[in-house]
Design a protein that fits this description.
Elements (H helix, E strand, L loop, with lengths): L2 H23 L5 H6 L6 H24 L10 H26 L6 H6 L2 H33 L8 H16 L4 H29 L4 H10 L18 H17 L2 H7 L5 H36 L9 H8 L3 H34 L11 H28 L4 H12 L1 H12 L3 E2 L5 H22 L9 H15 L2 E2 L2 H10 L6 H4 L1
Antiparallel strand pairs: 1-2
Helix pairs in contact: 1-7, 1-8, 1-14, 3-6, 3-8, 3-12, 3-14, 4-10, 4-12, 6-7, 6-14, 6-15, 6-16, 7-15, 8-12, 8-14, 11-14, 13-14, 14-15, 17-19, 18-19
């Protein structure tokens, strides 16, 4: 497929998104529309759109690529997905009722009432850093594909490719914000899901398989092992590590993340929010099964035709764009673009929302929808776009690992303290932390975890950490908060309870 055709396709794709943006924001583009879509979203649109946001280009490229990695991953990733599903259930039954009871715009406002102002700013700051890193990794993945298969042909520098992508995303999100994104993400999820099924169809066609022969071939292949129960200490693939890692990373990266929770908070009530989350979970699990099947078929195709790639992340784009023909190439680009930009557009909105509410205090201003406040929001939106561009450029200079591993490794360090903060607020509401010490505790915990991750085999009798490291990270933060806390006076308990409208809800929630 020629670079010119691909470029034309991308331009047409973004024209559609710009039209949707204009239609959704022409009547209202104030801050209530941008932050929570006036709390009037449809649960089925949110549920469907969240698929694209949660999966991203990482799942689209890296998960199929990992199936045949030399480390012997096979379908090991599905163990992690089962943990994800359990984590979504926890979010729906524990965290969402809390957020709706408090009528939050930013979910980190809960921490201010439960622990204190310094803890609140620390939680929001952790999110900003984590989401910039995570979303930039995801966008970086699609930028390198566009660079390799389109812009290198026109001798366009990597910096310009990244700038073009962010400008396009900014152009259709800066007015309507969440209201626009709920519609565009639903459309992009439709493109993503369609491309997965169509990709399987085209690969099966090239391998001369019907659907039943393809399923049988995958089952008999060397790529289809799902559950790993051997070598608990030394293997990163052991079921317990993958499942627990998936569960707690989901609670942290989704339930304690402003990005995906912001969509849930745009719904009318908790009943619709739960309906959205459970529907989303079912579709999420099924879609990931198909991604793994695509990976197995890609490696069979590569083996048959002698195709080799320097990185597993390049396998899917190389076969789709160079070997399968024009229509499969367009389908691939449609899915990749939809997956990645569905993640990045909502991330920019969430980053802007969190900074405006948590650091600029928009939720405490009476004139939040004034022209001045809207202009401030625009400046913040532009600033975070610039931060993501800079981060992408840095990644391009230093990264040499599979993107999916990098994201979850980073998440283990940056989201772990959020687990500790929220757990302490929920389960030890009768204790008062030393608020000014909280930022230091949240820095020390990831540092200890990093030391453990590189020395665990020596210190723990051969044990090797994987995604379950986030549990240790959260536990260290929790213990640090407990050691530096004291029992609240009765007056302080009542005051904090009143400030957050019943945030100390452990008995009600569990």
């Amino acid at each position: 497929m020629s670079p010119g055709v691909l470029l034309t396709f991308i331009i047409g794709y973004f024209l559609v998104l710009l039209i949707i943006s204009w239609l959704t924001s022409r009547k209202s583009s104030d801050n209530d529309t941008f932050f929570v879509a006036n709390r009037n979203s449809k649960w089925y649109l949110v549920a469907f759109g969240m698929i694209g946001t949660a999966l991203s280009g990482v799942t689209f490229i890296s998960v199929p690529g990992k199936v045949g990695a030399v480390t012997g991953d096979e379908f090991e990733y599905f163990q992690f997905v089962l943990g994800n599903a359990a984590g979504f259930v926890v979010i729906a039954t524990v965290l969402l009722p809390l957020y709706y009871r408090l009528k939050l715009t930013s979910i980190y406002s809960y921490i201010e009432g439960a622990l204190g102002a310094w803890s609140y700013k620390t939680a929001a700051g952790i999110f900003l850093i984590s989401r910039i890193i995570g979303s930039s990794f995801r966008l970086y993945l699609v930028v390198i594909v566009l660079q390799k298969f389109i812009f290198d042909s026109y001798h366009v520098p990597f910096f310009i490719t990244g700038l073009i992508c962010l400008l396009l995303i900014w152009s259709y999100t800066f007015k309507g914000g969440l209201k626009t994104i709920i519609i565009t993400d639903s459309l992009q999820t439709l493109f993503l899901v369609s491309s997965v099924f169509l990709s399987m169809y085209f690969i099966c066609q090239s391998l001369h398989y019907n659907i039943f022969e393809a399923v049988d071939a995958i089952k008999k292949s060397s790529y289809s092992k799902v559950f790993f129960f051997d070598n608990f200490l030394t293997s990163k693939f052991h079921f317990s590590k993958a499942f627990l890692g998936g569960l707690f990373i989901t609670v942290a990266m989704t339930g304690l993340d402003q990005d995906l929770m912001q969509k849930n908070l745009s719904l009318k009530n908790i009943r619709e929010a739960k309906k959205n989350m459970f529907s989303f979970t079912a579709v999420f699990v099924v879609i990931n099964i198909f991604f793994l099947c695509v990976g197995a078929l890609l490696y069979m195709y590569a083996a048959k035709y002698g195709i080799t790639v320097e990185k597993t992340d390049y396998l899917y784009p190389t076969i789709a764009l160079k070997y399968l023909g024009l229509i499969p190439a367009m389908v691939f680009m449609l899915g990749l673009t939809a997956a990645t930009f569905a993640t990045t557009d909502s991330a920019l909105t969430a980053l802007t929302t969190s900074f405006c509410v948590d650091f600029l205090g928009f939720n405490k201003k009476l004139n939040v929808n004034s022209k001045e406040m809207v202009n401030v929001r625009h400046y913040v939106h532009i600033a975070f776009s610039g931060c993501m561009l800079l981060t992408i450029i840095i990644f391009n200079a230093i990264t040499n690992t599979a993107v999916v591993n990098a994201i979850f490794k980073v998440a283990s360090y940056t989201y772990g303290p959020l687990l500790g903060l929220y757990s302490f607020g929920l389960f030890l509401g009768n204790r008062q932390v030393k608020d000014k010490l909280v930022p230091f505790i949240c820095l020390i915990s990831p540092a200890i975890c990093y030391y453990l991750s590189i020395n665990s085999a020596k210190l723990l009798g051969g044990y090797v950490f994987d995604n379950e490291l986030i549990i240790v990270n959260g536990l260290i933060t929790f213990v640090g908060l407990w050691l530096t806390s004291s029992k609240k006076s009765e007056r302080l308990e009542v005051r904090n309870f009143d400030n957050i409208e019943g945030a100390n809800l452990t008995g009600d929630l569990l």
